[in-house]
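This part of the workshop introduces the protein records we will be handling. As an example, a complete record with its sequence and its structure tokens follows.
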Amino acid sequence: MKYPFLFLLLLGSFAGLSQKQGLHGQVFWVSGNQMPGPEAILSPNQGAIREILIYELTSFKDVTQVGPFFRDIKTRMVASIVSNPDGTFKVKLPPGAYSVFTKEKNGLYANLFDEKTNINPVIVKSSEYAWKTITIDYEAAY
């Protein structure tokens, strides 16, 4: 073959097109008083348009945290996508473990953690789309 690198490049491109796994879900914005009571201002979960950043699995040792926001993430970002007006999103990813953040004006946001201090983790398995609900609630009181 005269151009083996071209063949490998094309093969890699087609392999990426055949990915049948990744991440899909919905982003919600919650704010205000969420406590029960007569003065509660319960806001319904509202779908939110946000840029969603997907990194290799990230723990607290891999970031700088300022309040509820993160920056200086030392792991590699592998994908990003903007959610639809209703908050839904879908992105192809290879199988693996990832951390999911939303981009906010004060930094990256995530509010779920596992027992190993991994930030907003999700596992993508071969031939499956993992579901992730993302609730942005740093302006909510519970």
Summary: The chain has one domain: 19-141. Residues 5-17 have pLDDT under 50 and may be disordered. The longest helix spans residues 4-17. The helical segments are 4-17.
